Every structure is written in structure tokens, then in C-alpha cells.
Amino acid sequence: MKLKIVDGFKIRNSLDIEFGVIGDRSLCPYIKPGQVWLERYFLPEKGLILANFRRKKALTKKYGYEQAKSRLRPKKIDRQAMKSCHLLKVGHFGQARVYLVDGRLVRERLDPNFCFGGHHLVYKYIPRGEVWLDDAVDAAELRFIAVHELFELELMRAGKDYTDSHDFANAAEKEARRAEGGAVYPKD
User: Fold this and answer.
1) Does pTM top 0.90 for this prediction?
2) Which candidate, 28, 35, 32, places its Cα nearest to that of 11?
3) How far is it, in rounded angstroms, from Cα 114 to Cα 19?
4) Is the pLDDT of residue 188 over 80?
5) d(Cα 111, Cα 10) in Å, to the nearest integer?
6) Taking Cα atoms as reference points, which of 121, 122, 125, 89 lies closest to residue 106?
7) Helix axes 162-179, 139-157, angle to 10 degrees
8) Per residue in 67-89, is it b (16+ CB within 10 Å) or e — as a string?
9) Cβ atoms of residues 16 and 30 within 8 Å
10) Number of neighbours of residue 40 by Cβ within 10 angstroms
11) d(Cα 25, Cα 36) in Å, to the nearest integer?
């Protein structure tokens, strides 16, 4: 396995809106066999992220992807970590309060799968009415993640399931990235 440090922002703006913190060919068909790509923002957490990536791959083979993610989370929610991860209130958007959170603390104590952002309808450890944005992400990308999370939250509140809401939120995020002038995707 060869580890390659990549600019995920560039990948999400040009190739794959879904590229996360870490990936290999099984998740991203454009990655060469034998390579693992790690998002440069998360380099300070390389050890933890690689260990969780390996554990998730093994658990996915045995139980499937969703069950693997669930098995990596602690059994009990760490209420103290929930309170102490807030770094800054970014704002209020409709009914949602948006916070910049200590992503590393969230990954270490609440959910090793957390990356970029989330809201309470997807992650049970996020308090009701909150949207969390990961402080590990470059500030230039945070507004796009906020667009995604807020759009997804509103669709889910309106009754759409997560999968459809996520797909529509990806489309809204792509449009926001294109509007900034920095994103062009295959087939555009």
C-alpha cells in the first residue's frame, strides 16, 4: 500500500464531490490499485485515520458498510465531548444553529467516521437543531460543506430519506462550487 497525500478540495472541485478523508480503489475507482489517498487537511491525524480505515475495511467485509461504520462508534455517547467540541458559533440559518467544531475531538471521542460536517438527523450525537462543520477543513471549503449540510437537513425535515437528501445536497454543493468559479466536473 502506497500512501499518497492529496488536495481533496481540488478533487472535490474537479472529479468527485464525494471524495472524503481517505480512499482507495474499492471506494474511488480513479485511484490506482495499491494506493491509498489521504486528504492533506487531515495529515495531523494520519495514524488514527489509517487505523480506522483498515478497521472499517475489515468490518465492511464481514458486516457491510453501514454496520462497519456503526461498530466503529463508541457504544455510549460521550456527553462531555459533545459539549466541549464546539469552537465557534458560525450562525443561525433557519432553524439550524451552525457550529465550527473540533473535528479531531469528534473523531477521537464520538465518531471516527465524522468528516467535513453533519447534522442531528444523521448523527445522533449532534444535538437537535445543530449543524457541525469540521475545523480540520480549509476555510475556503467550509461554505460549500455548510450548503450541503443545510440543504440535506431541510430535505430530511421535509420527509425525504437520507440517501435522496444526500444526493440532492451533493447537487446543491456542486452548484455552489461552480458559482464560485473554481469547480468544473466531468461531463460539465
Assistant:
1) yes
2) 28
3) 14
4) no
5) 26
6) 125
7) 140
8) ebbeeebeeeebeebbeebbeee
9) yes
10) 13
11) 8
Give the three cell numbers for residue 9.
478540495
Confidence of residue 52 (pLDDT cuts 50, 70, 90): very high
Rounded CA separation 177/13 (Å): 7
In the chain, where are the structural domains located? Answer: 2-72, 79-179
Q: What is the mean pLDDT of the chain?
A: 94
Phi, psi of 99 (to 5 degrees): -125, 140
Per-residue pLDDT at 65 exceeds 90: no
Residue 52, classified by CB atoms within 10 Å of its CB into exposed (0-12), middle (13-18) or buried (19+), is middle
Looking only at the bridges linking them, the beta strands covering 130-134 and 96-101 are: parallel
Chain segment 28-45, per-residue pLDDT in tens: 999 999 999 999 999 999
Mean pLDDT to the nearest integer, 73-96: 92
Q: Which of 6, 16, 15 is nearest to 40 (CA)?
A: 6
CB of 130 closer than 8 Å to CB of 119:
yes
With a CB cutoff of 8 Å and minimum separation 6, the contacts of 130 are 96, 97, 98, 99, 119, 120
Residue 80 confidence (pLDDT): 92
Residue among 157, 150, 108 nearest 131 (CA): 150
Amino acid of residue 29: P
